[in-house]
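Posting this for the archive.
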Amino acid sequence: MATKKATKLNEIVEKRILAPSITMYRLYVPDIAKKVKAGQFVVVRGDDMAERIPLTVADFDRKKGTITIIFQEVGTSTQKLAKFEQGSALIDVVGPLGKPSHIEKFGTVVCVGGGVGVAPVLPIAKALLEAGNEVISIIGARTQGMLILEEEMKKASTTVHVTTDDGTYGHHGFVTDVLKKIIEERGANNIALVVGIGPVIMMKAVSDVTRPTGIKTVVSLNTIMVDGTGMCGCCRATIGGETKFVCVDGPEFDGHAVDFPELVLRQKMYNREERRALWDHKCKIEAQEKAIKKARKRVKMPEQAPKQRIQNFAEVALGYTKENAMMEAQRCLGCKKPPCVEGCPVNVQIPQFIQKIKEGDFMGAIHTIKETNSLPAVCGRVCPQESQCESKCILGKKSEPVAIGRLERFAADYELGLGDVRVPAKPKKTGKKVAIIGAGPAGLTVAGELTKKGHEVSIYEALHKAGGVLVYGIPEFRLPKAIVQREVDYLEKLGAKVKVDSIVGQTVTLDELFAQGYDAAFIGTGAGLPYFLNIPGENLNGVYSANEFLTRANLMKAYLFPEYDTPIRVGSKVAVIGGGNVAMDSARVSKRLGADVYLVYRRSRDEMPARAEEAHHAEEEGIDFRLLTNPIRVVGDEAGWVKGLECVKMELGEPDASGRRRPVEIKGSNFILDVDVVIVAIGQGPNPILTSTTPNLELKKSGNIVADEETGQTSRKGVFAGGDIVTGAATVILAMGAGRKAAKAIDEYLATLKK
């Protein structure tokens, strides 16, 4: 007797064409099906080159582990998504996301669905009916052939009214015609709630009908998104005069408070790119990388020339040759009490690994590094060694310090180049399980340390790639993503399990992980919620948070659009606001996309927090630094697009709390920079998705987790935390240092538990 084939995760167990260009998929995603509620959505990707598409869950079956999504083909991404067949699997399904609909017994509720918006209305109507409400549903479409889910809506409603624009079925007209009639017949006081979901123009019309009557009206917004967790700020909308993130604060809002004109304009942001993709999406972009010049035999790090590198996304620093590395290693004094080790947050035994390089034992060097550092190829590229280990080097007192970071990178790259990545002998299993939330630098470090102790480690990552800021925040030309993937592959060889598309706080809660048998947990979710300036015009089309801009460019490879589906708005003149490494990354990516770039920073060069090397590279590449300049307004045109940035000149006064001299505005110095894209890179804060669903977890006023500096212990027993979620936005190596301390404390904690 033949055995039944097992259902794959994310498999399309049913596909139906509901109407021309409208497709229904029933997906096998048991973790999501177990948690999803009416009103929530998922983010899907068809393949590795696809855009992340947010889709509201139209139905779910907890027993069968399935959810239903329905979408209309409106552009290249949804056209490609519709080509999948029953039995195939999507590469990513992430969720549930957003806040669920508020369901209670209101009385009489009118549910209005237009076009494909009938799909998200269905589970809400069903839940409202089950709660004891009278549910009057109005569903509409352009024509009878485009009408969907009529029978399903009849089962979920007390009464259903159908409208078509052309009169081929039901009422000849719009859904708002029927809504007006129901309000007149029933009386506004007898209708407790109106729910409207559909095209933006329809939701605005529904809100306009109910506004004079005062009937509470809820609409569900489907704005442009990238990640769906609040990290990028792309989905922002103005609600009641305040900026809200649709994916975190919504998707449902008071229809009377939504700024619909702004929403309509923001929905048009990628129309130009979508037209290009529809015309050309099968074409491939020619390779941009030019042949890398052979490095000369000198200790200075060979680099691509500025004029060459601004035309590609290949790595700027080319790395040492064997001869370069051995020559540089000879400079190390081999101190008996090495201060450089004290300056390393993960305590790499620096003189020992450099001695191995001196001797030509390059594999010995990398094995020495990996005793305390699980991510050497990453650290050798992006850690600020000039303010860490190299700042302590004795040679630095009279000359330049030893290039410790470059030697670390050389050793890691040598091992990867040989393909001889050796895994230490696996220790005896302890039987203890640890959940790590967040696959960024802190989480990956904890995973590496604890697997080497014999513990069973599972890493939960919200995005579809492990690496956190290493994959979404740092550009390819500073940190190739293949390097990050190899480091993650190494951790998996050690025994760590990586679970992507898993949002702890939504898909599963921390308490549920403990109920599943985990003995301890480490929270390393980073600082992923972007800050904005809160100045006029910040919601104009063409304004990005650095998180959104870099996520599109790095994680989603928008710089290869349309080979990859995710678009990015390439301005001819770009203003990047900020002076840190993220600002430098945003400016340098913009330059490579063909823009003239201004870097707008309100202090002077001396106060700039970016690494000196990054600022130097940016200037070499032609970034125009506008220092002592503060933006006060984004100027827009009549169509809602950026056309300028109003700024004022500043001068430095007395030092503020940060120790840097405080910038003071020069009155009457206003001027406007002629730009068509603005990128805000002024910092990030903690994402509340996990912390808001974890009771008894002590937080700071900022929303960061309170944790012991030396152990990472939080207010919850068995729960540890480290990295940016504790300290606020900092460096990769500091997050790794916190992870290493926490791993030691977790190992000690697990030893106290009974077997």
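Residues 130 and 156 are 8 Å apart (CA to CA). Confidence is low (pLDDT under 50) at residues 277-298.
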